[in-house]
User: Fold this.
Amino acid sequence: MGQKQKQKRSDDGEMRRKAYEKELKRLHVELVHLQDWVRKQGLKVCVVFEGRDGAGKGGVIKAITERVSPRTFRVVALPAPSEQEKSQMYLQRYIAHFPSAGEVVLFDRSWYNRAGVERVMGFCTPGETRRFLDAVPGVEKLIVESGIVLIKYWLEVSQDEQSRRLNDRITDGRKTWKLSPIDLASYTRWDDYTDARDDMFAASHTAWAPWHIAQSDDKHRARLNILSHFLAQIPYKKSKREKFFLPRRRPPRKLRVRELMATPVPEIY
Assistant:
């Protein structure tokens, strides 16, 4: 390991925040160029994020979207299906959220719920899982042939790090909303999720829609690695933007002092 790489690591092996933020800023600039290219070319991009609970999917998605336009980068995180949706073809409610021209859609969990949480937690039958895994390669080939750029990521987290993150959600009031009874029930089924993951990869890792695995115990490295990889999947040209300058403005006119017709926010800080 070179001296430069050593300097980027803290004593516990995690990436130093300063180095992380510097590289993240650089990648954010590239994401803006990519955004302009997607709009200009009318590209349709669909990105799937899967992984165990606490693997860091939300953090990666936030890192991608925090400096780009929500009109171009759209996040889809569907709740449990309604009774009406349960009666539909399985993929129907996901297809409704696919990108139009000039859009990037990021799925925080996707149709692969059927191969993961639904299988492990008994929300679907073994036959339904098998039929899904048999069908999904062909469906994804049709998706790609329709002109959609399909990119699939699996975030791999260790048992110890998953335990630490889930405990953090229990004790940190800012994160309790991330916990659900399903998360706690699935926590004891590590091996079942491993089997489900392996079967999913075996069935759906194809030439037209391969899976990309990112190690996510170090959340900073995982975010940077995925952002860098994502940018490399879509050849784009950097946009040339007009330089802007603030125009001179007139001095404010003198106003007579009067009470504003509005209720002030209490200044308690």
Summary: The chain has one domain: 15-233. Residues 17-41 form the longest helix (25 residues). Residues 15-233 form a domain with the Rossmann fold fold (CATH 3.40.50.300). Strands lie at 44-51, 73-76, 103-108, 148-156, 211-215.
